[in-house]
Amino acid sequence: MIVRLLALLALVSPFFFPWPYTLLLTGLVMVRYPFVALAVGLIFDALYAPSFLHGTLPFATIGGALATTGAVFIRRFILTHVSLP
Amino acid sequence: MKKSFFQKRRALVDSRLFSFTTILVFVGVLFAFLRVVTPSTFFTLTGPFFRVGAYGSALTSDFMAGFARAQVLTRERDTLAQQNQSLIHQNAILAARVHDLVKLVGTSTAPLPAGIVADVLARPPESPYDTLVIDAGKGSGIAVGDPVYAEGGIPAGHISSVSASLAQVELLSSPHASTTAWVGPSRIPISLVGEGGGSFTARVPRATPISLGDSVFVAGKGIRPVGTVVRIDAEPANVTETLRIRPLLNPLSLTVVDVIPRSLP
User: Fold this and answer.
1) What is the reported pTM?
2) Residue B31: inside a domain, yes or no?
3) pLDDT digits (tens, 9 = 90+) for B196-225
4) How many domains is chain B built from?
5) Number of compact structural domains in chain A
6) By residue range, what is the domain housing residue B31?
């Protein structure tokens, strides 16, 4: 439940917190919900990218997608090979 | 008991995880979709969040200021009062010089027309792209491309997106943004390239007469300073050298900006 609340906080944090804090929060939540990185990246670009889809690359979305891919593989590895309590 | 490989893999597609993940991705995609398809509606919907964020920042700042030591604050206030007095004198001297020069040469820097003053709702470091969100939009007469100035008439950027009550400002220092400018007393033309975090760089041919501390100006109504040259990077193999320019404007502390609609004379 706490992780879900943190995930929701990560989604709204681009409005309230400096981006490094959002990154940290997303990193913490990503362990449980890898796709939060993609969602936060999309929100960042929607809110702050100067010309969304009109010139500059959506770096936050790309970064979020890469982080999500990495987190999915890591999570998959952990769940498959590590015995969690 | 040892679990089979199949059972372990099923843990990845846990239905609860999947449903919450779907919500997360849906929210992100919805934001992006609204931003692309109806930017005006997007900023109208997100406006209250930005306002709450700005209010929260102001409250936090006031709260933290309460912990500052009174003695330190008093000393700081006295120093600022002295500096202010000194600047008033300098300003008076410079104003008199300008007056004399205008009489002699017959020209002057055009004063900025009265624009639209807007509060800054979001700024770096909330924004990683060197963009601002300001509390004024089409309803106030702002349009895409209007120039934006900070306090003191320092050029800050231009409007990149606008809704009914909010607008997005792309700062001159936004990564890869390019602005025509001049540097130094001999007004050497350069192309300012934004580096993010409020800073700029520019490339000039080697042996161009530019020295550290030279001011950089941008075109517009009058010549407006944007920064000073703080470092010149030159490599023996290159025919150009890179100017590192420190901005006069700190985007992290911007609270109010002035938007000058292009429709104004």
Assistant:
1) 0.73
2) yes
3) 888 888 888 887 888 888 888 887 666 788
4) 1
5) 1
6) 14-65
